[in-house]
Every structure is written in structure tokens, then in C-alpha cells.
Amino acid sequence: MERSLRLATGSVAVSIVVLALKYIAYRLTGSIALYSDALESLVNVSTAAAALIALKVSARPADAAHPYGYAKAEYFSAVIVGVLIVVAALSIFREVYFAWQEPHVLDLSLDGLGANALAGVINAAWCWVLLREGRSLRSPALVADGKHLLTDVVSSAAVLAGIALAMATGYEKADLVLAALVAVNILWSGYGVLKESIGGLMDQAVPGETLARIRSRIAEEAVGAIEAHDLRTRQAGRLTFVDFHLVVPGEMPVSQAHAICDRIEEALRSEVHDLFVNIHVEPEAKAKHAGIPVL
């Protein structure tokens, strides 16, 4: 968790530096497209701060009020990120509309474009770090922040390419068209973040590949039992919850059934990190012959 907090703190610092560079680029050029890019970076600062707060909350140990811990706080952070992304996109559409009604003169200085390009390079490097580490740490807040930064990187590259085209053709309204396209890209990013975070809040099951590994380890380690059935999984941030029924012979001693459960739990925790396992032991009369056969 310390690593996640360091990354989240780094995101706040990086997003402030990038915002400053993009705002300088906008002030030097007067470009609405660069303004949209700067506005997205303002959202980056807010989302990075939201991710940092969520990670601090999720790091709290389980207590009487929250016996399963606070890991889901990260999903609330991701929802906030998604909402802020949508608000930023709507703000850009508003600026495009008014600028289209009252055309403005651009000053496409190389200093302004250079400041924006530098901000894009910094964002790209940090985005790569966040996505790699966020997936490794299974942190929805860091992954959401990284995905948002990825859209920012794409937007910045498109804006710079488009402005170069506007300079070459002399068509200044291309600046506004680019800003609108950036807003569309931001909206799509917001939809993706909201979809994933809501899935987590709704106790979404683990991915199919992870589920297959879980089933395989149960089948391998439940030697002495008859079958396992009613397997259920859910994710809560970095935590994974697994529960199932284990059918054992009726005459098996409790100590032996308990030893099988311990063996299964140890194997599953070596396969999936930050795992909580709940096993309900049943006698053979409860067998359904439709679950996980024991190898």
C-alpha cells in the first residue's frame, strides 16, 4: 500500500507541473484546442488528489463497522474521476460553441507549442508508470488515473498535429474542430472509467482467466474431498473474495476436513494475492455432482 500512496502522491505533483505547462501554452497562443488540453489537466489534478485520498482510506485496516475493510473506497474515487472527466468535456464544448460564434486570432508561437509538447512527454512517461504499477498492485484508483492520463496524451498529440495543420493551411477554425474532437475523446474515456468502477461497486466477479486458475487449484488441492460447488468470486479494489462449498465423506473427522481447507486456502493465496477465502464444509449427501471434481 505504501507503494500505491507514493505513486498517487507523485501523480498529484506531476499533474500540477503539466497543468502549469499547458496553461502557459494556452496563454501564449490563445488556442481553444490548447485551452481544452489545459482544462483536461486541471481535471487531472483533481482526479490525482481524489485517488490519493481514496488510497489512504482503502489502506485502513478492517474494523467492527467495516469487517471486510475499506478497499472499495478506490471505486468511489474512480467514479469521481469519471464524473469530472465528463464535466471537463462539457466545459470544452461550451468554449468551442462561444469561440465559433466569435472568431478569435491565434498566436501559434513555437514557445507555446513547445510547452505543450513538453507537458505531453511528461504525461506519457507518467501514464506508463501508473498503468504498469496500478495493474501490478490491482489498484482501480491508479489504473483509472493512468487511463485518464492516456487520453490526455492522445489528445495532446492530436491537438499539436492539428494546430500544425491549421498553421499550414491557414484555416483557424481547425483549432475549434480539434477542441471538439478532444472533448469527444474525453467523454469516451469518462464512460470507460465509470463503467469499470461501477462494475467494481456491483461486486463484479474475477476475470475468466483468474477464475479458471482458482478452479484448477481447488481441484488439485482438495484431495480427500468429493467435490466443490457453488463457487463465487468478487473483487473489491486490490482484494479478491472467494467462497464455495466443499463436500467431504460423512465419516471424515473434522480435523481432516479442516486440514484440506487449510491446504486449499494456502494454494489459492499463492495463486491470487490479497485473497479472502470462505469454505463451507458439507457431508457427501449434499453433493450436487455438478461442481468442481477433485483430481
UniProtKB/TrEMBL annotation:
Family in the record? Belongs to the cation diffusion facilitator (CDF) transporter (TC 2.A.4) family.
Q: What is its main location?
A: membrane
| Keywords recorded for this protein, A-Z | Cell membrane, Membrane, Transmembrane, Transmembrane helix, Transport
Which topology term describes how it sits in the membrane? Multi-pass membrane protein
One cellular-component annotation, GO: plasma membrane
This protein's name:
Protein p34
Superkingdom as given in the UniProt entry: Bacteria
Q: Where is the Cation efflux protein transmembrane domain?
A: 11-202
Task: Give the source species.
Answer: Ancylobacter defluvii
Domain Cation efflux protein cytoplasmic: start-end pairs? 207-284
